[in-house]
Amino acid sequence: LHDITLFDKSAEQSQMDFIVLTRNCGFILESKCLSGDIKIDSEGNFTRILKTKDGKVYKTVGIYSPIHQNEIHLSVLNTFFNDNKLPRNYPIEPIVVISNDRCIVNKTFAPSSIKNSIVKYDQLNVKILQLMICEEHGIKLIRLPNSFSKDYEFLKKLIEGYKEDDTHEQLTLF
Q: 164 Cβ partners below 8 Å, 6+ apart?
């Protein structure tokens, strides 16, 4: 679903860029086409860094967290499902998608929850497949592999080899 607007009980408006619902899980995709580079600090604050053509920083400004924005979307969507008695037997994951290929996102000091919730557009399909496979097998990952492997079959074989007594070992691979 694209460009969905929902209202919560307090008449607050929540506009969601994309909602993807699958058999086992769902996703709220917040798309951001940000100019400049983005730095996320250890407290989850977002800073936009604008540079000249020769790479010199000419402006640094804090921006509203798209992660927080997406958490609000998730809350409103959950309320919508509950208020309308819609069945929802699976998790919905919020993901922020950076759509500007020139934007560099520095997540070095970001909390892991933020690192795992923001991806560049060219990694979105891998991220969704990872989450879908993990959900299908009942695996809750602490940290998803960002550059571990883009190979869907490899990841699927790894997760299918998961055994209940190997939980700690399997999760530490990621």
A: none
Mean pLDDT by 10 residues, the chain (174 residues): 84 86 87 94 96 94 95 89 79 92 94 92 90 74 40 51 43 34
What residues contact residue 37 under an 8 Å CB cut-off, 6+ apart?
48, 49, 51, 103, 104, 105, 106
Are 110 and 41 in contact by the 8 Å Cβ rule? The answer is yes
Q: How far is residue 103's CA from residue 49's CA, in Å, rounded to a whole number?
A: 10
Nearest to 49 by CA among 60, 58, 40: 60
CA-atom Rg of the chain in angstroms: 18
% helix, strand, coil for the chain, step of 5 = 35, 30, 40
